[in-house]
Structure formats: C-alpha cells, structure tokens
C-alpha cells in the first residue's frame, strides 16, 4: 500500500530516504514550519503528531510520529535492504550513532529551540550545538566506520548523519576538523536514494535553495 508522509523537506529527510532505500511508494504532504505561523500547529496536523513536529508517517493503518520509530518500523515490516546489522554489536553501534544525532545534536538546532535563543544568537547557538556533537561523533566514527558509519553497509546511522551534515552546511559549520564525517557523507551522496531525497531537491524546496 501507498504510505503517506507528512514532512517539511529538509529537517526529516532520513524518513524519506528510508522509504526510498526500501523502494516503498509514498506520497509526501509538505508541512511548512514557518508559513501561517507554522502549519505544524494546525488542528489537522496535531491529530497526526501531538508533539506538533515533523515527521508523521501514515502506513499500514497507523500513524508514526518520530523518525527513528518510523525507520525501525519499516525495518521490522520491510527488512530488505537491511538498515540494522545482524551482528548485535554493530546493531548497537548503529543505534548509538543514530541516537547521538537524533537526540544529542538535531533537537538543539531545531526551529523551536532557535526561536527561544533569539534571532541574534541563532547562528552561534546552532554552530556550537553541531560542533559539540560532531566532536564526539567524529571520534566514535573513527572506530566504527568503514565506507559508511558502521562498516560497509548503509544503515539507520547513515540516514541520520546525512541530514545533520546538510544542517551543518546550512549553519556554515567548518567541517575540516571532521574528515571521517565528511568522507562518509560524500559516499552517501553518491547513492541515488540519498541524492534524490536531499532537501534541496524536494517539491516544496524554496527556489533559492534548490540544487
């Protein structure tokens, strides 16, 4: 069946990429986080995700509203290609990297947080949040990485890494101190599923941000 995903192109492209990697047909309904005071605050969207955050995925008669939960559900119901390694140690590494990004970096430079720190402080705040997380992530990846975050197969960790590197670029973070992160990201962007789901190539991407 056709999955229906509600997202703003950019912040949640890991969800779109997991659908693309698993060859799942889906319809995207864009939710603009700034238009009309934030479309995520509408009653319609709150009925899908009470946290008033993207994403939300309607699939198999249920609605799932968090990125990692979405990816795990797709992995359990549509396990090919595999996004979590069979080896439990590698699987733990994948989840560790995914959680580090999804819980320890990404929320700190979300729009809702940036609004709280004030317009004049947003860039500095976002840069500090990303560099602090990337300092830890680079060290971890030096031990776990092969071609990708954990070994030589694309995993859930890579789905989290690529959008965070895109955010780092958006906030003008110098990636020179992070050669492992940069190398993995370059390898990922060479893959079709990562290329087509990049935020600069989404239907609702503003013209000035399109590739």
TrEMBL record:
Tree of life domain: Eukaryota
A biological process term (GO) from this entry: glutathione metabolic process
Pathway recorded for this protein: Amino-acid degradation; L-phenylalanine degradation; acetoacetate and fumarate from L-phenylalanine: step 5/6
Domain GST C-terminal: 87-207
GO cellular component labels: mitochondrion
EC numbers, comma separated: 5.2.1.2
Keyword flag Protein biosynthesis: no
GO molecular function: glutathione transferase activity; maleylacetoacetate isomerase activity
Top-level class of the enzyme under EC nomenclature: isomerase
Cofactor(s) of this protein: glutathione
InterPro entries in the cross-refs: Glutathione-S-Trfase_C-like, Glutathione-S-Trfase_C_sf, Glutathione_S-Trfase, Glutathione_S-Trfase_N, GST_Zeta, GST_Zeta_C, Thioredoxin-like_sf
Alphabetic keyword roster: Phenylalanine catabolism, Tyrosine catabolism
Catalytic activity, reaction form: 4-maleylacetoacetate = 4-fumarylacetoacetate
Boundaries of every GST N-terminal domain copy: 1-82
Any one Pfam family match given in the protein's UniProt record, by short name: GST_C_2
NCBIfam families found in the cross-reference section: maiA
UniProt xrefs under PANTHER family: MALEYLACETOACETATE ISOMERASE (PTHR42673:SF4)
Protein family (similarity comment): Belongs to the GST superfamily. Zeta family.
Protein name as catalogued: maleylacetoacetate isomerase
Organism: Muntiacus reevesi (Reeves' muntjac)
């Amino acid at each position: 069946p056709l999955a229906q995903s509600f997202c703003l192109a950019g912040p949640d492209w890991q969800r779109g990429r997991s659908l693309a990697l698993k060859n799942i047909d889906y319809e995207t309904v864009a939710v603009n986080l700034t238009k009309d005071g934030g479309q995520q605050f509408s009653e319609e969207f709150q009925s899908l995700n009470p946290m008033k955050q993207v994403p939300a995925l309607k699939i198999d008669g249920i609605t799932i509203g968090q990125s990692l939960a979405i990816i795990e559900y797709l992995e359990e119901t549509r396990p090919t290609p595999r996004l979590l390694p069979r080896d439990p140690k590698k699987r733990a590494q994948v989840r560790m990297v995914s959680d580090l990004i999804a819980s320890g970096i990404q929320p700190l430079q979300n729009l809702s947080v940036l609004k709280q720190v004030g317009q004049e402080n947003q860039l500095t705040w976002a840069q500090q949040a990303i560099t602090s997380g990337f300092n830890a992530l680079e060290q971890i990846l030096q031990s776990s990485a092969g071609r990708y975050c954990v070994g030589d197969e694309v995993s859930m960790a890579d789905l989290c890494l690529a959008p965070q590197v895109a955010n780092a670029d958006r906030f003008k973070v110098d990636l020179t101190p992070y050669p492992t992160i940069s190398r993995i990201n370059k390898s990922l962007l060479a893959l079709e599923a990562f290329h087509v789901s990049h935020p600069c190539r989404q239907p609702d991407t503003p013209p000035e941000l399109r590739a």
